[in-house]
Amino acid sequence: MNYNSAAREKTVRFGEEVVIAICILFLSIFTPAVAKENTIVVLGDSLTAGYGLEPGEAFPEQLAKMLKTRGIDINIINAGVSGDTTAGGLARLDWSVQNGTDAVIVELGANDALRGILPAQTTKNLETIIQKLENSEVQVLLVGMRSPPNMGQKYVDDFDAIYPKLAEKYDLLFYPFFLEGVAANPDLNQGDGIHPTAEGIMMIASQFLPTAINLIELLDKNDK
Questions:
Q1: What positions carry a catalytic annotation?
Q2: pLDDT tens for each residue of 31-84
Q3: C-alpha span between 62 and 67 (Å, rounded)
Q4: What is the pTM of this model?
Q5: Which residues pair with 105 in a beta bridge?
Q6: 174-218 per-position pLDDT tens digit
């Protein structure tokens, strides 16, 4: 056996291993960390679920596209369920908002108003949703809704006050009225006069965009 040859081979292998270890260490130090992609869940009803629209035309999808054109890649999950009330949203909260969710856009209450559910009950449901999300360290963006006028002025006043009061109480990011500029506009609503067309949703998403960007900036700030 040539001991000198064997020794040289071991020395070469050792040298290669040292070089590899140094390279790995160098890469771990100087390779920039990949930014975490935030996940936002839109917990809503038919207005966000995309009732009567084609795939890709619902609010969460359109909002994600608008953000992407501004260089913001974000995972937006559509957890809208047509016909859902605040009670329904609360009942499915735990499985609609999975672990790893960074923020939830809460858009619920339109069906409460249509059904004449007592504003006190709607308030309780929304407040419980907010508390559960905050206890899980999930950022909340509350979206306001307004009651139709046929419920009577007392009901309208009590219902419409729910959202700004909750936003102030919990110091939440707040979008006052989801259907701003679209409600009661026949050119931007489907035949039922309630659900926006794709064009109506595009207008909503466009108006909502600055608030969504504020939410993402807040998430980025909290990640640092």
A1: 46, 192, 195
A2: 444 456 899 999 999 999 999 999 999 999 999 999 999 999 999 999 999 999
A3: 9
A4: 0.84
A5: 42, 141
A6: 999 999 999 999 999 999 999 999 999 999 999 999 999 999 999
Separation between Cα atoms, residue 3 and residue 25, nearest integer Å = 33
Helix ranges (H only) for the chain are 3-30, 46-49, 59-69, 86-91, 93-96, 110-115, 119-135, 153-160, 162-169, 198-223
**Beta bridge partner(s), residue 43:** 79, 106
Separation between Cα atoms, residue 130 and residue 163, nearest integer Å: 12
- Name, in order, each residue with C-beta under 8 angstroms of 139's C-beta and a sequence gap of 6 or more: 102, 103, 104, 173, 215, 218, 219, 222
Q: What is the residue extent of each domain of the chain?
A: 1-31, 39-223
CATH 3.40.50.1110 assigned to domain 39-223? The reply is: yes
